Structure prediction request, 270 residues.
Amino acid sequence: MATTESPSEFAGVDADADLDEGSYRPALVKLVEDVRDSERQLLAGFDSRRAILLWTQELAVRTLGEMPQDWFYQIARQFRGVPSSAHERTLVSALLRPENRTRELDEAKAREFRRQLSAKTIRPAAHRAFRELRADAGEYVDDGSDDQHAPGKQQYVAMRPSIHELHENQRTTLEELLDGFEDRESILGWGHDLELATHGEMDEEFVTRCYGERSTRKLLTSTESADRRGRELFAAHYLIPVFNRGVRDLAGRAKEQADEEQEERKTSKL
Prediction:
C-alpha cells in the first residue's frame, strides 16, 4: 500500500482528537494512540542523538516491552559512529532531521527508512502489546458528562500507573547518565535508581563495574565531548535494552486504573 504523506502532514494531525470521546475499553485506545504518537515522532525525524535515545526508551514502554531485544542492540551499534570520522552511521543519520545530520543522506530515502521501521518493527510489536493487553483491559460504562475513563483523560500508558511510574524512573536515570555524574559516589546513588528503572533486570554486577572500572568511571564523570558522546553509546547498549525487559516483565503484572482513581487512592493514604 503506497502512501504520500510527509512527516509534516502527520505532525499536523491532532493526536488527541479522538481521545476526548468515551470508550468502553479506554486502555486499548490509549495504547494505540500512544504508539501512534511515537510513530509521528519517528516520521518527523529527531533533532539529536539524545532525542533518539529518549524516544527509544519511551517506545519500549508504549509497546509494553514487546519491541525485539535485538532491535535495541542494532540501534546501539549505530551509535558507535564511523571509524576515523565524526560522521554518524547511516541508520542514525536516517533518524535525524536533515539539518541535524553530520553526513549527506537523501531525505526521501531516509524518510522511507523511517516508514519501513514503523511498518516492519514497531507495528508488529504494537500488535503483540495489544493482544497482551486485551484480555485484561477493563470495560467501563460511565453515566453523565464527566467521563473519567475517556482515553484522552488518561496519562498512564494502558491505564497502568505502575508502568507510568517505571517510565518516569527510566527517563530520569537515562537523563542522569547522559548528563554525567559529579563523582564516584553519585554513581552508587544512581545505581539504586537504576534498580527501580530496570525492574531488577540489570545484571547484579553492573553498578559495581561502573564504580570500579577506571575507564567506565571516567566515561560517566567526564565533561569532555568525546565522553559525553560515549555515554550515548553506553546508554544505548547497556540501559535501554534492559529497560525493555523490565517493562515486559512488569506489564504482565500491572493492573488497570484510571487517573482519577489513582489520585483518590493516593489521597486516601495521606
